[in-house]
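sorry for the late reply, my laptop died twice this morning and i had to redo everyting from scratch. anyway the thing you sent over, i finally got around to it. pasting the sequence first so we're on the same page, its 135 residues, then the predicted structure underneath. double check i copied it right bc i was rushing
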Amino acid sequence: MHSATPADGAIPICASEVLTEGGKGWRFPVSAGGTPSTGFAVRYDGRVVAYLNRCAHVPIELDWNEGEFFESSGLYLMCSTHGALYEPDSGRCAGGPCRNGRLRPISVLEVDGQIFWQPDDYVKPLGVQPPSLNE
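ok and here's the structure:
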């Protein structure tokens, strides 16, 4: 954690203390390509990472109970439906039906005891629509 100001447009997710190493994740609302969805943040290897809550195998949410993203060893993120495993630090498929897929990362930062996410061209705050092709 560092003492800095969050970037313009950064959106608060939760307090840093909510995310424990390999523990329960925190879900937050997003718009993915104009469709309401969720993102999630977890702490792994001492840092916070966040992804779109959508399996690379089949576009369904990963968590089997709200916020439960890690499999029993706490080493991999796991899709509750088909057992696809993902490396928490990179989002890359580590086994199962996701093959060479990967989770869609969401940029996060941890500042002064708070975790923020940064919107991008695809993942935006809920209610913000992507520009139309005519604009």
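The chain has no helices and ten strands.
thats about all i looked at so far, will dig more tmrw
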